[in-house]
Amino acid sequence: MTGHPTRPNIALSHDPEQLNRTIHDIAAGRATARQCAETASALRHLSHELSDHAAVLAFGGPPPSEQPPTTGPTPEEPRKREDSE
């Protein structure tokens, strides 16, 4: 990591105009179940991306889902050499 917070990979899977249309359709009582479900899914995804980015900004590191695996030796833990006799 370079010390700079990563930028979130945020892409709203819904067209902003479609999101706006869904909001108006809900208010007018003509939104379909599918329209509501698809919008909810897109907003849930956006919410997760924003939460992860907030963690990066608040704690100065990547969220747990983006941390590298901890298998094998790390720079702080040199490999142990087996003694051969």
* Radius of gyration, whole Å: 22 Å
- Provide the structure class: mainly alpha
Number of helices: 2
Low-confidence spans: pLDDT under 50, at least 5 residues?
A: 1-5
- Silhouette: elongated
Q: What fraction strand?
A: under 5%
Q: Major β-sheet, in short? A: none
Structure commentary:
Residues 76-85 have a biased composition (Basic and acidic residues). The longest helix has 27 residues, at 33-59. This protein has helices spanning 16-28, 33-59. The chain has 2 helices and no strands.
What is the compact description of this entry?
By secondary structure, this protein is mainly α. Helix content is 47%, strand content 0%. Mean pLDDT is 75; it is low at 1-5.
In terms of topology, how is this protein built?
Layout: H1 16-28, H2 33-59
Can you give keywords for this protein?
85 residues; mainly alpha; 47% helix; 0% strand; disordered N terminus
